[in-house]
């Protein structure tokens, strides 16, 4: 009889907000060929030659602004989620990060030490992307083959269009916006270079993530959508819009956190916030459904920088909706998916 266990996997954070730790963390993260997907020589030049000599100081400053006494918000919130899920299922639940000290190898080892040989790996990302889900699954399989050849690992597929997930997310948004008179709700997703979308297109001809396509491909049914991050993001916006009965024109999608000079998914969040303010929107709300846990990108880039941009162009009320974090209904849904997997 096999023994089942659960491995939750999130992105990771530096060990501390000090430049040395941030540099080590960014080095591992940005040298991942699925994050900066250029040939090794070019990645070495770009990351080790340029980014790691300039960015860690600025990033460390940003991390310091959001760091909690207990540690990185992303790690602390993921741990709270792990503990709550553990309280709802009969299988051991471990937590690991793709980058940093809480490695996937340690997470698997922790489960194996408890006798587990059948693991359900849950990437904590609603949408599939080469830079998130794919890199986790590839690394987990490498580790399994090298160190734990006798165990089985299966994974939870991207759940962006799961109607139970949409319901939990929508209810959370509605609760946060209760009594608030907002004019526009912006769904801001972490960006990726347009090139990533083309690379993940299994049909090799469907996806055109450039603004000139106006997202037409994402609205046209295709097998490419199983791996199209852009499609999966705009679907979340559409499904939540439908669920909450939002009025056309009062909500939209944008993409944040671009890095470097290549074109990333558009419209960009910072420019969208600026445009909305310039068009006279006084009250706006923003939700970040590419993240399951609040992190640097939501707490600093959106809640601080985003609000500043909005105020600079005349905006007044800027409401940031927290991620699902350890929301009770989210925990219940994860437990339901785990139990469904265990019954297979
Ligand atoms: C350079 C390329 C990057 C790609 C592609 C990318 C994709 C991607 N990232 C997330 C989620 C998170 N990213 C976070 C931080 C972060 N991301 C990048 C770069 C890329 N991300 C950098 C350089 C950083 C570090 C911070 C900085 O220096 O500005 C985080 C926050 C981590 C934390 O500790 O709080 C998350 C979460 C997704 C979902 C994604 C593609 C879909
Ligand atoms: Fe990122
Ligand atoms: Fe598409």
From TrEMBL:
Pathway: Porphyrin-containing compound metabolism; protoheme biosynthesis; protoheme from protoporphyrin-IX: step 1/1. Keywords: Cytoplasm, Heme biosynthesis, Iron, Lyase, Metal-binding, Porphyrin biosynthesis. This is Ferrochelatase. It is found in: Cytoplasm. Belongs to the ferrochelatase family. Its main location: cytoplasm. Its EC number is 4.98.1.1. Coiled coil: none annotated. Catalyzes the ferrous insertion into protoporphyrin IX. It catalyses: Fe-coproporphyrin III + 2 H(+) = coproporphyrin III + Fe(2+); heme b + 2 H(+) = protoporphyrin IX + Fe(2+). InterPro entries: Ferrochelatase (IPR001015), Ferrochelatase_C (IPR033644), Ferrochelatase_N (IPR033659). It is an enzyme of class 4 (lyase). Fe(2+) binds at residues 190, 297. HAMAP family: Ferrochelatase (MF_00323).
